[in-house]
Amino acid sequence: MCPQFDQEIAAETLKLKQIQQKYSMYTAPQKYVPPTAEEQREIDSRSVHMSNVDWNSTVEEIEKFFYGCGEIKRVTIPKDKFTGRQKNFAFIEFDSPKSASMALLMDKSEFRNRFVTVVAK
Predict the structure, then answer these.
(1) pLDDT digit string (tens) for 27-45?
(2) How many domains does the chain contain in total?
(3) Which of 16, 54, 62, 63 could form a disulfide with 112 if both were Cys (CB 3.0 to 4.6 A apart)?
(4) 3-state secondary structure of 32
């Protein structure tokens, strides 16, 4: 083979590897790393638990319900692992502990024709 051809192939191979490495962080699945105990306490300090939630409630409806309390980072409505049906409670994580405190004032409020319970997580 021609030495110049081998050098071109080596150079192209190197470029390809660099491109693959650059974009692998966008396409490779990220391994879940659970929060540390300290991080979990901080998350819990700005989260609430909402119970007696209607089975057909959506994340968007819950976000709308707590709209005036502050910025919501995440709403989680757990599902039964066997049936896939939503459970009748939700976790709402706010941007700040102050927002979570405001959300506690929504306790015993009506949501989708039910009176919900909102407590600190």
Answers:
(1) 656 788 898 999 999 999 9
(2) 1
(3) 54
(4) coil
